[in-house]
User: Fold this.
Amino acid sequence: MLELIRTRRVIRSMTDKPVKRAHLEKVLEAGRWAPCGGNHRLLRFVAIQNPVTLRLMRKVSPGMSQRPAAAIVLCIDWDQVKVHKIPAHDRAISIDVGTAMENMMLAAHSIKLGSGPVTSFSKEALRVVLNIPQNLSPEVIICIGHAAPKDQMIMIPKKKVTWQSLTDWERYAG
Amino acid sequence: MAGSMALNEEEAYELLTFLVTSARIQQDEPASYGSLRLLTAAERLSGFMMEHSSSGNRGFLAGIQEDIEQMTDSMADVERFVTSLDELCRVVAQHLVEQNGLSGGAS
Ligand SMILES: Cc1cc2nc3c(=O)[nH]c(=O)nc-3n(C[C@H](O)[C@H](O)[C@H](O)COP(=O)(O)O)c2cc1C
Assistant:
């Protein structure tokens, strides 16, 4: 598991080889098993394989450099937020998006698919492209596909990041 | 200067949508992403232009694309990013100067 976590990288260059529906279903299942606040199921997924739809999604998503063969959009269902009387600013809501996203990306990696999250898109334009109703807000697009042999647009961090550099023990040392 | 270098409909719409959606998401994103979006638009535009350009300009456009790709990979180093942006501006201006026959000193 740790090896999977360590070797997953965001893939920004994908081939046009299709993604099998069964593989996409595995990724979706991983999303379902992600931990979520209060065990409320606030997320809805939209899975896309149609090349025309994918092309339009890319057009309204300036942050999408890849041309994915499939994609999953994670949406928050605000009707469910209301049903469970959760305050709209509760951090758990966006944390839920993150846990599902990471589960899905790791699941994709485990079956040799590349993935890349995109949050830089126009919500309203994506809503139109995917016919997403007002009670749902699209939060992240996970692009899925086969990594091109010549990747990658990697965003190089300024400083080397290790778990030690991120961690303080017992009390914050500053 | 070369004559018309029209984009086809698909290309033009791609750019139009990219710019409009970028304008919106920029309201929610760090200011430095504005430069990134404009560079990505420039990269896409130069890709489209390549298909319609003379072979002389194609080399220039390919160079621009390569430069932009490298720059967007290393945005974390702000100082280097700004230096590269300045260099890119010089390269584009120099190309225009040559294209318009302005090379050489004042007469
Ligand atoms: C919340 C979130 C939003 C992101 N949005 C985008 C995006 O719009 N476009 C993109 O290319 N990458 C996006 N990424 C990917 C990050 O840039 C990437 O995870 C980071 O550079 C580290 O790379 P790695 O995951 O390969 O280690 C996003 C990641 C997260 C967690």
User: Anything to note?
Assistant: Chain B has one domain: 9-99. Residues A 9-10, 12, 63, 65, 116-120, 155 surround flavin mononucleotide (CB under 6 Å). The interface with chain A takes residues 13-14, 17-18, 20-22, 24-25, 29, 33, 37, 40, 69, 72-77 of chain B (CB under 8 Å). The two ends of chain B are 22 Å apart (CA to CA).
